[in-house]
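Predict the holo structure. Ligand: shikimate-3-phosphate.
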Amino acid sequence: MAARLIITGFMGSGKTSVARELAASLGWRFCDADAEAEKRMGMSIAEAFDRLGEAGFREVEVETVGSLLDETAGSVDNTVVALGGGAVTSKAVRERLAAEPLVLYLDVDVDTAFARAADGTRPLARDREQFGRLYEQRQGLYREVATRVVDSRGMDIGELVQRISKIIEEGGA
Ligand code: S3P
């Protein structure tokens, strides 16, 4: 059976960059749930928040994550899936993740996360206080779904890729 690693974590934790590099280094397929949701909606996430509201975006996100997991489960390719930072706020996503053997929480400190995430593209990374509140609120959710936690503090992408490759080699969770 093909292996699958799912990476979760807050905005700006480096999920997408790490997942992409890791997939390239292992020769695995890389899937990004945010990019898939944008494709499905035919608009950017920022636009979706404006037009559908956050609740509307979350509905699409739940469907997207569900289809991605269904599709990659039947695939012969090993896959790394990067989730959007708020996917874990949906119960349906958390229930899907509960059946996954390898869900990695990429932990990051809030200041580093904000410095990376506040690039204007993320509707929930515009206000530093709101960002900090969300960061606190979500810690429990990431830990609930994760089978492994990797602290990214002080590590660059190459080091994270090495660390996560080792976790996979050792059999994951
Ligand atoms: C969000 C995180 C974003 C994106 C959207 C909402 C969140 O993904 O899905 O802007 O609620 O944390 P990244 O974590 O990839 O930035």
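The two ends are 17 Å apart (CA to CA). Residues 11, 15-16, 34, 45, 84-86, 117, 122-124 surround shikimate-3-phosphate (CB under 6 Å).
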